[in-house]
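Re: beginner question about structure tokens

> Can someone show what the tokenized structure looks like for a real chain? I only ever see the sequence side.

Sure, here's an example I had lying around. Input first:
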Amino acid sequence: MYQYLTLLALAFPAFAQNPDYLNTIAQALQRAGLTSLASAAARLTNTTTGQTLLNRLPNGNFTLFAPDNEAFTGAPDAFASDDELVARVLSYHIVSGNFTSNNGSLESQIFPNSTVGRTLLNNSSLVQLEGNKSQVLVWTKVDNTVQILNQTPNITVQNSLSAANLFINVINGILTIPLNTSTVLNEQNLTSLSGIFNTTNATDSSGANVTVAKIFNDEARGFTLFAPSNEALQAVSSSLTPFAGNNTAIYTLLGNHVINGSSLYSPVLLSSPKLTTAAGEPLTFTSNSSGVFVVSGISSGSTVATAKVVKSDVLVKNGVIHIIDGVLLNLDTNPEAATSAFNSATSVAAVTSTETGPVGPTSTSSLSSDNSDNAAQGVLGGVKETMSTLVTALVGMLGWTALGVALV
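And the corresponding structure tokens:
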């Protein structure tokens, strides 16, 4: 193991000038038996992505999710020869900040609540969040065991130790980087919504005729989608049939399931007094012993629509999905509020920052000049573009009965 880390010291001044740092890390990895991880780390010198990661590590505090040796036996075949893949995947295993709890274990909320940390993965082919933000990692504690969410099979933290500025958490798997919306919808058994996305045409920002799936997959730069389950869509199919020919109503209905230009994870949702949808309507959140509920709109003091969040923080490469058990049947709209909300989200996204703690109301962040080739824009590039693009799409998406789109 030491020979691998010695190569790092020779290759990078940041390590060579601080041999004590390198020795501390080497000893920690040896004590933990993480020889496969040490071998993978040595390959970081072979790519620009890996070199950038190595140069960053000695500065600040970081939390490392370290796959054990057995985890590497199940690594993708490409790991053996693709150094760039190794660098990108390892970047997703490092979170900015020290997440050490008072008892020396990993800081974690207890299920159903989650802890969200900002990783060092920010390659534009894999991450397309608003404001050049890096991808996040989400974890929670179930029966006193910390489990990493969005991973199949389940990956859990085995033990923890500290070394220099690294808080190392040994895990029993290699983390999978979040994929595009279509892939994730199918993985989450949201096949009705996925099928509608894939069979509905729309016009993208360049004027080309594409599917709604492609717009969410490739053009969106930061969004929060409240995605009705298969059962939820089936339950309201008869109620939506009258709106099949009403483009305005259909756009409004879907727009009230999307927050434009912001990826809002569960800790943010629960701490937000009110959010504004792409249709300009307010979203609020309540919780009780049975769970968390999203409330869409207020009309004459009465709630317009409510649904329970049955699964939160489902990550995609350019946003986040929260699965709900109902369709938010709210046909009210406020274009001025939608425009204002999007402009506000765009302004916030333009100020890049480095979060060094949990993402949410207690997060710690600092301004950063770190740049990447990610673009800061909302779903479909903005409210005006969203409206014109989705009108055609929504006829199919929510008027499936009239258009013959099958619910799976």
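Each token stands for a local structural state, so reading them left to right follows the chain. Residues 364-408 have pLDDT under 50 and may be disordered.
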